[in-house]
Amino acid sequence: MKRKILVGVVVCLSLGLNVALLLPHVGQEAALAGPPSGNGDVNGSGGIDIADAVYILSYLFAQGPAPEAIEIVACDSCCPPPSGGAVPATGQTACYGYVAEQGWVEVPCDSAEYPGQDGYYQSGCPTAGRFTDNGDGTVTDNCTGLVWQKDTADVNGDGTIVWEQDTLTWQNALKYCESLEFAGHDDWRLPNVRELQSIVDYGRRDPSIDPVFGAKSERYWSSSTHVSLPGYAWLVYFYDGYVFDVVGKGRLSFVRAVRG
Q1: Greatest CA span in the chain, whole angstroms?
Q2: How many CA atoms lie within 13 A of 95 on its CB side?
Q3: Which residues contact 3 (CB under 8 A, 6 or more apart)?
């Protein structure tokens, strides 16, 4: 195998040298059209094609002109930075403050008394357009790239979601997701606690999740164990998005599988 790889490298270098030597003077008119305009367009022609490869080979093997550095500030074709943020927005758009004789009530998000709230910045991947219903019982989160079961796991397969029939212990929840074959995939798993919390919508309650999902206002297992209490696992309560660990692994909770 090593011999085949070495031969391949030698052949590629030989071909590159031959091309460059055959076209030593193509550079100045055809190979170099101007300053580089973006990643890959080293000859400045405005496109990425064989001429860019010839330009590089000419530089490497035939003393051709060196590629110029790309000015990032003028690089219209560079990949734009991701919008939003590395984590999802919470979904909260309202802001709150204390008003005498009223208590804690909704106030303008540009309030000088209670500035900088979540509802003001709404930082993170925006909620609008975040989820795509794939039409096969799954939902894709365009922020995290994870694919979720659209509905709470119908453990007994009877078409309804009932606490007594569709909740599992933590161990059985792990097994259920690992053996699940659904929507043409068999790589499902029980989400970890951060993944599970990522689909909580803190701008909603009862249930606190985007309406694209089918959900119960109940607790759902994560695959994450409480490190100080290994008999307990972290759960997310989708009534209001509360994350807690007070339930032992032998008790029952709902399940929603994820892949990705």
Answers
A1: 87
A2: 17
A3: none
C-alpha separations of 73 from 44, 76, 80, 113 in Å: 16, 8, 12, 39
Residues composing the chain: 260
Report the candidate in 99, 88, 103 with the shortest Cα–Cα distance to residue 203.
88
- Domain residue limits, the chain: 2-74, 82-128, 131-259
Q: Which two tokens stand for residue 62?
A: 């035939």
pTM exceeding 0.85: no
Structure tokens, 26: 């193509």
Report residue 158: phi and psi, to 5°: -95, 5
CB 208 within 8 A of CB 240: yes
Helices (H), the chain: 2-22, 50-61, 118-121, 163-166, 170-179, 193-198
Q: Find, among 60, 66, 70, 59, the residue nearest to 36 by Cα.
A: 70
For 78-112, how does the pLDDT look when each residue is reduced to its tens digit (9 = 90+)?
444 444 446 899 999 999 999 999 999 999 999 99
What is the radius of gyration, based on Cα positions, of the chain?
28
Q: Looking at residue 1, what is its pLDDT?
A: 52
Per-residue pLDDT tens over the stretch 183-214: 999 999 999 999 999 999 999 999 999 999 99
Exposed (0-12), middle (13-18) or buried (19+): which is 104, by Cβ within 10 Å? exposed
Domain 131-259, CATH: 3.10.100
Q: Could you tell me the pLDDT band of residue 50, with boundaries at 50, 70 and 90? A: confident
Q: What is the pLDDT of residues 106-125, one digit of tens each?
A: 999 999 999 999 999 999 99
